User: What shape does this take?
Amino acid sequence: MANSDSGDSVVDRVVRLISAFPEGRALQLSELAGRAGLPLTTTHRLVRQLAGHNFLETGPDGMVQPGLRLWELANRASPALALRQAALPFMEDIQQVLHQNVNLAVLDGEDVLFVERLSRRGSVNNRAQVAGRMPVHVSSAGIALMAYQDRLLQAQYLEHFGAPDDGTTVDAVRALLSETARQGFAQLEGVVDPDTWGIAVPVLDRRQHAVASLGVVVPPREMRVQALVPALQTAARGIARALADAGRPGSWTSGGSISRTDT
Assistant: This one.
């Protein structure tokens, strides 16, 4: 049957099922059904079918997790693959100098999506995880990205900006975006973690719009703007050139328009 009683298509239900998995954790079938908002019988049927194609894996203990085939196809066809390939040599150079976390992110609606992260033993705590998301306003990567979008997209973002639990106001975000565009980098101190300082710069296309951001997370005692910013900006320009040379100056970005669905 193509549609459920609620009107959801099979594709809708599969997307909800796959999207229900938290980062790095398998789920019991009943928990998966609850998180996906699907009946248990429907979840059982879809899991069995998806596991038959190795998109999901089921263990003897009844736990369900994303399968290797899903990871394979996502990485093979990922629009961020060209970005990661272009950025990794520059990210490695930055990490060798700083010995701290280096991250690469793109804009996806009202979120920043992290597509790569390098860290090493002894690095400060970094909440950014590969394939993880954060609201734009809590991450230096997000602010660097949004500050260098076109005015229409920025206006849409600010118009939809709600009242987050952290008490951030739309006027504060507007001021932060303006400051970032003026100085060429974003910095946030202790927003996600009180013992960290994030700084990020945009990776710009030919229109001077951000297609990605390159950032570092360091302890406050190592926050040296005059040293960090030029190194990051040089690396960001190198990433942009590598993308242009590969004929992929920005076709992989996921910013697009911002929309809000009320629940």
Q: What stands out?
A: The chain has nine helices and nine strands. Residues 10-74 form a domain with the Arc Repressor Mutant, subunit A fold (CATH 1.10.10.10).
